[in-house]
């Protein structure tokens, strides 16, 4: 047996050898993480530079929000995305619709190109107040046709309730309603909790730059090519994921707030309700999906009674994202309300 082997067999020799191995291993790991952070930061910068905001950033009091307006004419169509989404979700609708009138999509704070507002909880009450400030500071003062998808539908109803004097139409695209049944609320809460846990992992990957290094791994969302590149860039670089977690975690508070207001009937302001009969959330069982479809349809019928002049369209040709799967249907419906507003005016 040689001297080296004899040294390693001794307690003191083995300890020092083990410490050296651990130190070298730690050094390698630290160097690898540091390299990953540097490369990830560089990849983030490249994605940000190659995907600038398509609209303009407006100061709303210490932070900026993004609003993207196309076209000319009145009324202005203002579009709000669903939970966890931002303005690109309207990319199959907005360009063509802008041939008729001015159309604006915007990003709630912390989403898309909008800077986060860390001082306020991500509830509908906060979002409506932020939107009011955004429109005022962006000098958008004409009459509005409001369009909201999913959770965004609840937000535009809350906004309309405060501004009935300037709203001339509301389009609800498979929109959430505050009167959620207890069973649907339970199923939704379970699904949201599971999604939030998944997003926490995604947030870690985003923070160290892994998403920016391989944005093509972010799943397709049914968006047009340019919008999909923008979606991936935002998800890989910005505050999107953390804001999604905050918004989803506060949805129950948003629903409670909406119920507390006893939202008014819109009288003769036209309301168009578009709803998809096909519901298939992979995270839910077949029986849960059936229960969700039944409860969701009940909510859509309730929303069609918000106005004395309402339109109800049910489609089996698309899922929840009607604006991406049947954009022409959404465009026709919005144009109907724009034409009606001009005729009345």
UniProtKB/TrEMBL annotation:
Quote any Pfam family the record assigns: Abhydrolase_1
Gene3D superfamilies xref list: alpha/beta hydrolase
Fetch the InterPro entries from UniProt.
AB_hydrolase_1, AB_hydrolase_fold, Meta-cleavage_hydrolase
- UniProt organism field: Photobacterium sanguinicancri
What the entry lists under PANTHER family is as follows: SI:DKEY-122A22.2 (PTHR43139)
Task: List membrane-spanning regions.
Answer: 21-43
Keywords recorded for this protein, A-Z: Membrane, Transmembrane, Transmembrane helix
Ranges for the AB hydrolase-1 domain? 75-179
Listed name of the protein = AB hydrolase-1 domain-containing protein
